[in-house]
Amino acid sequence: MSWTVYALLSIHRNWIYVGISNDVKRRFHEHSSGWEKTTAPYKPFLLIELACFETRVAARITEKWYKTSYGKQTIKLLFTEGYPFTKE
Predict the structure, then answer these.
(1) What is the pLDDT along the chain (88 residues), one digit of tens a residue?
(2) pTM for the whole structure
(3) d(CA 26, CA 84)
(4) How many Å apart are CA 64 and CA 79, to the nearest integer?
């Protein structure tokens, strides 16, 4: 089983959410459907799959880095450079 670090970028607001999942499509659907109270006010989203790991521990370490201000700046840079996204 692999773990993916992903970011959700709100289309209408200046907001980024970073998370990990072993099923990114399911997790993106949960966020986009409003099932998560944390992300519901910020939908719709663009999805960026940032990295994939063999273990949850390794994914969590990278997730924590992307949650820092430097990590979120990196995500914004990926957005401006035209990184491939998945739309809702």
Answers:
(1) 899 999 999 999 999 999 999 999 999 999 999 999 999 999 999 999 999 999 999 999 999 999 999 999 999 988 888 776 665 5
(2) 0.89
(3) 19
(4) 19
